[in-house]
Amino acid sequence: MPTMASKLTVSYFKEDVEHSIQGVKTANGYQFNGESNKVLNLATLNWPPYISEEVCNHGWVFQFTVALLVSKGYQVNIHFFPWARSVKLVEQGNMDILFPEYFIESTAPSDVIKGKKRRELLALSHRFSGGELALMKRKGDNFQLKSDLSNLKGKMIGVVRGYQNTPEFDAMMDSEQFSTIDAVNELQLMKLLVAKRVDLIIGDPEVFNFSVSFSNLANQNKQALLNGVEAVQPALKYNHLYFAVSKKYTELHTLLDDINLALLEFQQSGETDRIVNTDSKCQLNL
Questions:
Q1: Backbone dihedral region of 149: left (phi > 0), alpha (psi from -120 to 50 degrees) or beta?
Q2: Which residues contact 17 (CB under 8 A, 6 or more apart)?
Q3: What DSSP state is assigned to residue 117?
Q4: Rounded to an integer, what distance in angstroms lies between the CA atom of residue 40 and that of residue 73?
């Protein structure tokens, strides 16, 4: 049952009227609009600065998601897990929405249900704002990425278990053209890179920085990680974000229509930009 501890307020504007929703912490996450019988269970991860239990207001993706779904009358229950577990829960249909997800190629295989493609199990919403995806190297390393990624062959690369990257990178990974070490999160990848356990790591540079900054490491160790790593230029791509809805959700098409309409409404009214920019100022004030 929800408790009144750890209250969290999400606000959004609709037709120039401000709406504020009071959330409550539950045993496994956070609940908003608990009076609604249109119940959604969402699985996510700690992925600062976009979404995390450790950052201001839990990050703009958290605020945006709650506002978006509550604006369409849903009860929102957000649960934080390691990413691979979140993927498993939604692909199996034990939770309704996986977020924030990168675009999933039609050929991407499921790691959860053998013989299935991920798009057979999940339906993607329209896209919303995201961030860059890049390779990271140790500072001073003279590695320069070729446009066809051919010089990744034979490398040892750190990846977060269950993440989508780019179609080209993932195809090379699936065909074992380079070796990989799986990590549970970006902080572990940073440690692997600085310790020279891997040659490169892949992810969102902003997430790498925030994951270190908001970790429990001593300040000296944080600085060692942040100063010891740099992004490979140019970035691989800009990745938009998506909501991935379980195809086992009984009102799948209605839910997707509601999400996509709300995304359009928030974009056209400027509410998406307002939430992103408000959170950016919040982060700067930490």
A1: left
A2: none
A3: B
A4: 11
